[in-house]
Amino acid sequence: MNIEKLINDHPNNYSLGEAVRELYYEKRKLFSILSEKMKDCKIYDSPDGGHTIYVRGWGEEISTRKIQTNQLNLFDDLN
């Protein structure tokens, strides 16, 4: 979204406010649809290069992540 263009296209405050609210509600509706589709998806991350794996639900705050304890070890059977 280009804020400068939005402001130039809506020179008065009422019109600008209306346009901003419209964009906000449109994006919120799209986020709700996406959240419903992604509700069972998980995000895995490792801030230490793979030594510790964390998991959290899609759309959840990073503070809710938990350590993933059942990691897949592909090469354990080769030793």
What key attributes describe this structure?
79 residues, alpha+beta, 2 domains, three-stranded antiparallel sheet, 2 helices
| Derived structural class | alpha+beta
Estimate nothing, just give the exact number of structural domains. 2
Main sheet overview: 3 strands, antiparallel
| Mean model confidence by pLDDT | 86
Neighbour order of strands in the largest sheet: 1-2-3
Low-confidence stretches: none
In helices, the fraction of residues equals 40-55%
Helical run tally: 2
Give the assembly state of these chains.
single chain
Q: Give the SSE order as H and E letters.
A: HHEEE
- Count every beta strand, where a strand is a DSSP E run of 2 or more residues: 3
Q: How large, in whole angstroms, is the Cα Rg?
A: 21 Å
What general form does the structure show? elongated
Beta content comes to 5-15%
Termini Cα gap: 54 Å
Structure in words:
There is one protein chain. The protein has 79 residues and is of the alpha+beta class. It folds into 2 domains: 1-37; 40-70, no CATH class. 41% of the residues lie in helices and 13% in strands. The protein is built from 2 helices and 3 strands. It has helices at residues 3-9, 13-37, and strands spanning 42-45, 54-57, 66-67. The chain has a 3-stranded antiparallel sheet, with no helix packed on it. A hairpin with an 8-residue loop joins strand 2 and strand 3 (66-67). The protein starts with a helix and ends in a 12-residue tail after the last strand. The relative contact order is 0.09. The mean pLDDT is 86.
